């Protein structure tokens, strides 16, 4: 782990001494509240850190996990929510939805030696093993350190602006509908010709694939 007050640590996929997936797993070795904000959160990505999450929650009932996700079918796997809820016996897990085109990637643990990871990496197996990602890791002595405080305040605002994720939000048709709304809103910001040539075919493909592979 990076020592407190050290320089910024660069995290890559598999071409550096410090991998993004390893740093994300290591967040759960400390105590406190962990915030996960990931524009795309797939089941395979979740499985890569599931044991770390379970150990973190079992280690202390004061440990909490707060996640903000995009509820659309192409952004979030319903299996993740069902699994987290199934072993959350002490109300330590809070899931929130942010349907307005969530694209942020921010991972933070408060408590002793708080750590923040921010960059391009989503919680997906593709980000862990294939994509060229660039993330930075900061560990400081206090969450009030000026390097960390802005990220923590952003998270507090993001949670306040989000809504609790409900079981009906992750029903297949509802998630596909969320995908359709997202892509429709994006299409409104593009010239009509771009929409016709690019967005419409992609939207139809996303809806088709989401209906087939919505549990992936």
TrEMBL record:
Record Pfam families: PLDc_2
Domain Phospholipase D-like, residue spans: 79-140
Keywords: Membrane, Transmembrane, Transmembrane helix
Membrane spanning stretches: 195-215
tRNA-binding is among the record's keywords: no
Protein known as: Phospholipase D-like domain-containing protein
